[in-house]
Amino acid sequence: VYVGKSINIKKRVMEHFAGQTSKSAKIHNMVRDITYVETGTELIALLLESAEIKRFKPAINRAQRQQNFPYVIHYSFNDDGYIVFEIAKPNKKVRKTLNVVNEYPKVSHARGALYRIQEEFELCPQLLGIEPGGGACFNFHLKKCAGACVGREEVIVYNERAMLGMEVITTHIEGNVVICDEGRNLEEKSVVVIEDGELFGFGYLEKDEEIHHPSEFKSYVKPYPSNPEVKKILIRQIANLPKSKLHLY
Predict the structure, then answer these.
(1) pLDDT tens digits for 205-214?
(2) Do the beta carbons of residue 14 and residue 201 sit within 8 Å?
(3) Contacts of 245 (CB under 8 A, 6+ apart)
(4) Predicted local confidence at residue 40, as pLDDT
């Protein structure tokens, strides 16, 4: 009925049962048994939590239950050289031809992401695809757009901000990466394998195990499905890891 993670499981369980929220009331009424697994790291805890929520679809968990992500934000360059974004619902064949920035379960989620970077980076709503084209955009008249929609802003200046916005919402991971970190005890280490920008799986091996090439780590992990939510977790965690824990191949 519920999947969660915590550094101190006992404390977290007690907080759930002692809480006064509707969520705590549901846990109090519905839970009959509690099981747990040790993961060793925050990253694997997040990945396992996400996978288990999708597998069991617990009644109390509301986030991360989506299985399908049919909508995408993709980008291209218009005739004037500006980066333009578009929301689409492509089939698998067409999707492979697009420069996909991120994938979403609902079109409203994709539009929300574009509105977010429009505000944060002062991007043109027409070039973001969230306002119909033709002449100056509404924000230009409010002096909130520098005029990329009518060619008044330099292409290179606008595109620099558009790229920064893209970095905020993207789930793209380049190439193959192995993340090595602490294990569940002092005798082992944990491994997360990313292949072709997608999660391959995670697992554990003995600390003194000899590895001659990063690709050999694949034999120690259990495969898990990759999806945009998982890749968002990976990107966020990779940004905070020291380079010594990352191995590219």
Answers:
(1) 999 999 989 8
(2) no
(3) 179, 180, 181
(4) 96
